[in-house]
Amino acid sequence: MLRLDREFWKVEICMSGVRLSPAVSSLKPSATLAAAAKAKELKAKGITVYDFTLGEPDFNTPENVRKAAVAAMEAGHTHYTASGGIPELKKAVCETYKRDYQLEVTPAQVLISNGAKHSIHNVLAALCGPGDEVIIPGPYWVSYSALVELAGATPVIVDTTEESGFCMSADQFRKAITPRTRLMMLNNPSNPTGATYPIDKLKALADVAVERDIMVLSDEIYEKLLYKGAEFKCFATFGPEVAKRTIIVSGVSKAYAMTGWRIGWTIGPVDAIKAMDNLQSQETSNPCSVSQYAAVEALNGPQQSVEAMRVEFEKRRNYVMGRLQPWREKFGVTFAEPGGAFYAFFNVSSRFGKPLAGGVVVNNATDFCTALLEQAHVALVTGDAFGAPGYVRLSFATSQEVIKAGLDRIEAFLAG
Ligand SMILES: *Cc1c(COP(=O)(O)O)cnc(C)c1O
């Protein structure tokens, strides 16, 4: 377990004498976006880069959704809306959870925001402040710790292992709780590991949350992207005692290939939702009006495109797993198979201190990624960004040709 203090995140800020707030000056830019930027630099030089840094589906937004957006514009839905979202979208969210998970929620329990990342920020800003601790199972999504810090609270990282499928146990959760614990942040299925919690393990966490009266933020943005029979259960569906301590975060970005539209939501207790709506009304007003109408169509319209994209992701996932499997023996690479999301997360530390292709020797995952990009023009994200030294993340949200060619190159690089 690791309590991160401010010094840990300190970065040198070069500036023209502008005085920044302590909260912002200790903030790091998103590491995944930084890795993608490096790859872009090479591409701009005319070099073919096999880019696996993408944290978004590579498909276009389904046609019915695009058309609904055009219709919304033509109908004049181009003005401010209610700060917390249009009633049609809140209703569509309620109906979706009833349809998919038999979860009964009212529109007053729903807040629509500018993407799920904004939803997470709202939760943290509304619930946490200085002196509070937020438990985060690691490896964790880059923005979690940064957003906790931004709220002035302290991230408490609970490291999980590959052997456990990167799932935090109830025992680990219980041991991390202190009188200052305000919230636990769960991401199921997980970015970056692809971990999906088996229902009994998830239930055990829910029991601890009730027993110790801890709020849980359950980020379920990858709920529709499940593979090979992996189970998913919406955290709030473990009964009313769990539901009243749960804030669900999700959105349309991943399931409907709608990252650019910026629509996410929180579902939780009415008073918490009201507080977040107040906050949002002061900070950003409403999420984009046109995007909200598009999201209504995404949720209420035909769902075949979601399954079509999932099937394509599953094909790629299986191909990637088939390629990684022999690397265990050949290179000592280790990994847990992803049950959801669209990432392969593997440990390359067995190759540290030994010559890779071109005679390069690296001693950590960040240098590994830099060398791989320079030598083989393959872009991965370092596990250091996710609190997982020795690991790298490969996003398979890219074409099968790129995946094949990129894996060939990684293999040659590892072989030395
Ligand atoms: C992509 C992602 C989100 C949210 O994305 P938005 O585009 O802001 O809706 C939230 N959590 C995780 C873990 C993600 O990977």
Over all CA atoms, what is the radius of gyration? Answer: 21 Å
By CATH, the topology of the largest domain is Aspartate Aminotransferase, domain 2
Bound ligand species: pyridoxal-5'-phosphate
Percentage of residues in DSSP E strands: 5-15%
Number of strands: 14
- Written as H for each helix and E for each strand, in order along the chain, the element string is EHHHEHHEHEHEHEHEHEEHHHEEHEEEH
Largest sheet: number of strands, sense, barrel closure: 8 strands, mixed
Helix content: 40-55%
Overall description:
With 416 residues, the protein is an alpha/beta fold. It contains 15 helices and 14 strands. Helix 4 (63-74) packs across helix 12 (289-300) and helix 6 crosses helix 11. The protein is globular. The chain has 2 domains: 27-56 and 306-415, Aspartate Aminotransferase, domain 1, CATH 3.90.1150.10; 64-301, 3-Layer(aba) Sandwich (Aspartate Aminotransferase, domain 2). Residues 55, 115-117, 141, 187, 191, 219, 221, 251, 253-254, 259, 264 line the site of pyridoxal-5'-phosphate.
